[in-house]
Amino acid sequence: MRIDRTRLHDTVLAGVVAAASVTLFAFYTPGRLQGEGLPVEGLRDPDPFGAVLVVLACVPVALRRRWPLAALCAGLVPETLLTVLGYSGGLSGISGLVLLYSVASYRGLAVALGGLLIALTAYILGASAGPVRVGAWSEHVVVAIVLVAVWGVGRSLRLRRAYLEELKDRASRLERAHAADTRAARAEERSRIARELHDVVAHHVSVMTVQASAARRVLASDPDLAREALSAIEHTGRLAMTEMRNIVGVLRTDARAELGPQPGIQDLPSLVDQMREAGLSTRLRVEGDPRPLPAGVDLAAYRLVQEGLTNSLRHAGSGAKAVVTVHHEPRELDVRVEDDGRGTAGMSARAGHGLVGIRERVALYGGILSIGPLPGGGFEVRARFPLKDGQ
């Protein structure tokens, strides 16, 4: 069975205050107080009824958190009766202060002000109707100041708790926003990895398919040439596995991935050589003054050339020629892949999923992509990437 610790603490506090108040109520009789030089005019001797009133004034402390205003009113009634009837309250006044503090600390401003007004009214009523007279008005002022000070302490602690709760809520909102941003970043990273994997697999598998077809055709007539084609297939497969391992390595959680630099414009000569080995006559032209490019644009340009050449290898037909043109301008990078297109593939076969992914890459960096047949025959994939401040 679970125990409410706060209620237990309040009950213990009420019992301690009640025990101390009853003890002082019985110990400090008018005769003892008179012997110590204190005024006792109108003060009654302790009796069981007065002791009951003292206990009743202290018991509501046990409910100070659950029903603070009701507990304050319930405690002020016997405390006021003690004063009106001329009894010494012992420490019952302490319970009144505790209850006033609880109202100010656990309730809103309107209820807290009502509690303060009730406490001041009860004190004024008891002081004016009771038989014991206070010597000077300054004592009443001190009591009023104490009541207001206790009320103020309760309000300040309530405001502090509200401030801390607001800080916790703000931290929780920030944590949720951070988690949402993290999920969005992960989704974007998965999308990027999917694009990279598609480009790598599509390119290398197309090259391997063409090389395997060539090896099959010359296997009987020219074993040496078939052996070279098979070696090229093995080399291309290893390259594909290496690139795929580097890309997928970022998804591993049990070990750090061995990541290498992403390919870019500087890797186009090796890509052109690979396409030549696969049977596509390819030429690379670089125009303008080469300059460092942003990493994203550099990779997007490379993937565009890779996908364009793969498209030509698949659909341009045997004996086709392709030209890769990279034109550097101060504020623009122009990349084109053109082939003479003597194959029989139509436009729908040319514009496959790979070129759709290239369109997303180019749009990501604000570029303009054009894909389609050339007026004099052939096919072109062209992208223009804007560069800011020469980058």
Automatic annotation (TrEMBL):
Catalytic activity: ATP + protein L-histidine = ADP + protein N-phospho-L-histidine
Keyword field contains Flavoprotein: no
Any one GO molecular function term: kinase activity
EC number from the UniProt entry: 2.7.13.3
Domain spans labelled Histidine kinase/HSP90-like ATPase: 296-389
Keyword Membrane tagged: yes
Pfam family name, one: HATPase_c
Record key words, sorted: ATP-binding, Kinase, Membrane, Nucleotide-binding, Phosphoprotein, Transferase, Transmembrane, Transmembrane helix, Two-component regulatory system
Transmembrane regions listed in the UniProt entry: 12-28, 84-103, 109-127, 134-154
UniProt-listed InterPro entries: DUF7134, HATPase_C_sf, HATPase_dom, Sensor_HK_TwoCompSys, Sig_transdc_His_kin_sub3_dim/P
Annotated Gene3D superfamilies: 1.20.5.1930, Histidine kinase-like ATPase, C-terminal domain
Listed PANTHER family: NITRATE/NITRITE SENSOR PROTEIN NARX-RELATED (PTHR24421), NITRATE_NITRITE SENSOR PROTEIN NARQ (PTHR24421:SF10)
Name listed for the protein in its UniProt record: histidine kinase
Organism listed in the record: Nonomuraea rosea
